[in-house]
Specification:
Elements lengths: L1 E6 L2 H8 L6 E5 L2 E8 L2 E7 L4 H14 L4 E10 L9 E9 L22 E2 L3 H12 L5 E7 L7 H10 L3 E5 L2 H11 L3 E9 L5 H26 L2
Parallel strand pairs: 1-4, 1-5, 5-10, 6-8, 8-9
Antiparallel strand pairs: 2-3, 3-4, 5-9, 6-7, 6-10
Helix pairs in contact: 1-6, 2-5
Length: about 230
């Protein structure tokens, strides 16, 4: 299999290098992808960059050049639910854009880009297999909606504005819906895993720096071990 593992930031990518040893490096678009061979699988590790445009651009560049079989997107997110806490793992069932407001443009709902699905759902056999793996390992995780936008959410006021339209959102981040939209159009299975790094409130900037390394390492360990077992 050809498997893409894409994370927003270098500090998150570094943990994968503790498990894999790069063989080659290649530029696709504006992003350098490292190539690893693991248990007969070809792994492409790259940075998405931060934000929707960077994420969509760099994933599209890879998928336009390599026939990827499975995409893993990992990284951090802020909590949008009182029952979701720092270091919790979220396995999103779907993504949408919290900063897309197009209801006046036609028969659309909040979060929907015109002529695109209302939500980008991540249903796939590959995702089901990964869920089984997590359960076998005794890994606790939550499932649900993650919302995406180009702003770092760092106040209760911002959270409340988002909750008005997406009351069931578990987390908020800056790349996921763009990844899901690209995967949807390329017809590729996407497994997303976000680890909560902050509560999306006034302490978010301080908490993010503290926790992103810890949650990044947690996600990387799970993904790396899973990839090593895929035949």
């Amino acid at each position: 299999m050809k498997i893409a593992i894409i994370v927003p930031m270098e500090i998150e990518a570094a943990y994968y290098r503790d498990n894999f040893h790069s063989e080659t490096k290649e530029m696709f678009g504006s992003t350098e992808f490292e190539h690893f061979s693991v248990n007969g699988n070809d792994i492409y590790l790259g940075l998405s960059g931060i934000g929707k445009v960077q994420a969509a651009m760099n994933l599209s560049s890879l998928l336009s050049n390599v026939d990827i079989d499975l995409i893993f997107m990992t990284g951090s997110a802020g909590s949008m639910d009182k029952n979701i806490h720092k270091e919790d793992l979220i396995l999103p069932t779907s993504f949408t854009y919290h900063d897309a407001h197009n209801t006046a443009a036609g028969n659309y709902v909040e979060g929907q880009i015109p002529q695109e699905p209302a939500e980008f759902k991540l249903d796939s056999d590959a995702r089901d297999k990964f869920k089984t793996y997590l359960k076998q390992k005794g890994i606790d995780y939550k499932e649900g909606l993650i919302v995406t936008g180009d702003s770092f959410i760092a106040s209760e006021k911002q959270k409340e504005e988002i909750k008005k339209n997406f009351a069931n959102a578990l987390g908020v981040e800056m790349e996921g819906a763009a990844f899901a939209q690209v995967a949807y159009h390329f017809n590729k299975p996407l497994i997303a895993m976000r680890a909560i790094s902050d509560n999306g409130d006034e302490n978010a900037d301080e908490d993010f720096d503290t926790f992103v390394k810890k949650v990044g390492a947690k996600a990387a360990k799970l993904i790396s071990e899973y990839v090593e077992e895929i035949n």
